[in-house]
Sequence to fold (293 residues):
Amino acid sequence: MLKTNKDRLIVTAVQAVVQPSGGRGYGSTWEGKSKMTLGTASINYTVSIGDPVWGYASADHVEPDVTVQGRDKPGARDCAIAILGCIGNEARVVSGDAKGASGYYIGRHAGADDLVWFPKEVLEDLALDDKIQVKARGCGLQIEGFEDVKLNKMSPELLEAMGVTVEDGELVVSVVAEIPGWILGAGVGWDASVEVVDYDIQTTCPEVVEELNLKSLRLGDVIAIPDHYDAWGRGRYEGAMTIGVIVHGFSSSGGHGPGVNPIMAALPGKIKTKIDPHANIAYYLGIRDKPKK
Fold:
């Protein structure tokens, strides 16, 4: 088992509220067609972590489970939960009819939306503007002997559940797929704070979507992006490796698609991957039962 500094991490409370849908109305697809889009913000009773990224009626950037936003600063991206929340942290409802229910922090979309999971029965009692508190733990997490591998938005619990091993001086990480860096679009080069912004696998070219089998991806999948180094910002570095988690679904907007939260980033010679079709945080966190082989 990997040795980490988990016992020296600060654990702190951060808070947010269940965010209502934006209701922005019609937008334009990459083809110039008008489309009424939905699936971001609010409580998603249809789509949960582990579900496909594609195939929902009128959906765009669909976010699984429950979307929350911090209120401690004027902008959601500047709030504590946006920066300190880590995938796998405990989330708890602290107001309303669902008070006391617990779940997990499961990622962050763009500059505004933090995502949490609760069991389906909890969603029936959850309401817009209910307060959600997260025990934030993971900022500053390091692997002994691999301190130069940047870990981001990853709880110690998630890292341990992923079963990362060491082989010939490199970390071996299980991923569903390797996604070529050239297909990454919105978010590339934007903001050095990888904690607060995801970036998108472009799904606006049908031929490439088919070639890379992008419709097979699921929310929560762990993927690799070769030749990207997403330690401080998101961008290309020959031979580097970034490991990420899929946090939202397909898009018909130019340059957009399934969103990725980088969770590991390394310069050449530090990370190699192996393919596991079940490398998904829904299984790692015990949200879903892993299929039997």
The longest helix spans residues 156-161. The domain at 150-284 is CATH 2.102.30.10 (tm1086 (SG structure) fold). Residues 23 and 38 are 8 Å apart (CA to CA). The first strand starts at residue 12 and ends at 18.
